[in-house]
Specification:
The chain contains 5 helices and 8 strands; from the N terminus they run E-E-E-H-E-E-E-E-E-H-H-H-H. With 166 residues, the chain is an alpha/beta fold. Strand 5 and strand 6 form a beta hairpin.
C-alpha cells in the first residue's frame, strides 16, 4: 500500500509473470524501489538462479536474465557445488508433474521446500550438466524463433483478411 515502494527499477516477479513452457524471464509486470526491497523480507535474486512456483502454478520454473525480487509464492533455489544453476532449472522443469502431484491446499495448491528437496534426481558430472543444459537451451531458442515466425504470419494473415474481405 506504500507508493514509495512501487514502480522502481527492480522487477517484482510473481506467479502471473511465469507462463507455461516459459524458461526465461527478463522482467515483470510490476516493479519495486530499493526502499521497497529494503522494507520487505524479499531479497534480490541474481540472474541465472532458478525460480520455482511453490503456490498456484506449482512447478513452473524459470531463470531471469537480470536480478529480480520475488514474492512469497516463488522460491529461488541456489544449487550447491555439485549442481549447476542451468541444470537445476532443467531438473525442476522435468519434475514439474511430480511437484504438482504432491501439492496440497484447501483453496490454493502449494508445495513446501521439503517436497522439492525430497525429489529423487540423478546428478551427472558438471561437464555433462553443461552439455545437457546447452542442448535444451538451443532447442528452446529454436522453439521461440519458430513461435515468433508463426505469430508474425498470423498477423500477416489477419491483415490480409481485413484487406481482402472489406
Amino acid at each position: 500500500k506504500e507508493p514509495a515502494y512501487w514502480e522502481g527499477e527492480i522487477p517484482w516477479v510473481t506467479v502471473k509473470d511465469l507462463r507455461d513452457e516459459q524458461s526465461i524471464i527478463d522482467g515483470a509486470e510490476e516493479s519495486i524501489t530499493q526502499t521497497g526491497l529494503d522494507s520487505s523480507s524479499a531479497s534480490l535474486i541474481p540472474e541465472g538462479i532458478p525460480i520455482l512456483c511453490t503456490r498456484m502454478a506449482v512447478g513452473r520454473a524459470v531463470v531471469s536474465t537480470r536480478p529480480v525480487a520475488i514474492n512469497q509464492d516463488l522460491k529461488a533455489l541456489f544449487p550447491g557445488e555439485e549442481l549447476t544453476p542451468s541444470f537445476l532449472h532443467r531438473l525442476l522443469q522435468w519434475h514439474r508433474s511430480d511437484l504438482q502431484a504432491v501439492a496440497v491446499g484447501s483453496t490454493v495448491d502449494g508445495v513446501k521446500l521439503g517436497d522439492v528437496r525430497s525429489l529423487e534426481v540423478g546428478i551427472p558430472p558438471i561437464p555433462e550438466q553443461h552439455r545437457i543444459a546447452d542442448v535444451l537451451d538451443t532447442v528452446d531458442a529454436a522453439i521461440q524463433e519458430a513461435d515468433a515466425v508463426v505469430e508474425k504470419q498470423e498477423q500477416v494473415k489477419t491483415g490480409l483478411l481485413q484487406d481482402l474481405l472489406t
